[in-house]
What does this fold into?
Amino acid sequence: MVSSPLPNILIPHRSLPSTPDATSRFGGVGDGVAPLAKGDKVLSKSREREYIRLMAVSSPDLKAFLVATPFFGRLSDASLDLLVSMLVERRFDAGVTVVAEGEPGRSMFIVQSGELVVSKRGDLGRVIRMASLEPGDFFGEMTLIEMQNRSATVVAETPTALYELTAGNLYACYKADIHAYVMVVQNINRELCRRLRRADNRIAELADTSREATTPICVRQ
It folds into this structure.
């Protein structure tokens, strides 16, 4: 990624005071995370620490990574450049909650590095692990489609870097490049269909297991 002076960033739904260690790293030595650049913001809230920066002009490596993800598939170079210019890079320490179930959501995230866990809270209050996320995956897209609160909680298991795209960005894409907008929405819908198929298969497996566990065994005498 080409480094350049970066303007201040405001995240409306996480407007937190910057901390004194704004030039520190969020990981340990040798963790592969670059030091903060000029213009980066460090945000904290209790145990939470996150770093955000606007994307600079994308490097070939960054574009190659994004094109390989389901979200950016089949986009032209011009459309990809437009969307990349809208992205905000956000970094989280291990253990930090990126999004929480039930909170308002107006953005989605593409995982650039790190691992995350998706969970939901059951009726009895138990936290149920739903899925794991790794580089190339994306999450939060449901809020861009249905404009509802977050359906699950996502927590960083390791130091994590994400690219954020907001609903406002998506609308700006619609106004500037309708073809790119249509392709992005189609990519989101394809991913939602894949997840629905996996959920259907899992439900069928659980139903079969439940029937086997409850079917009485007749023993002839």
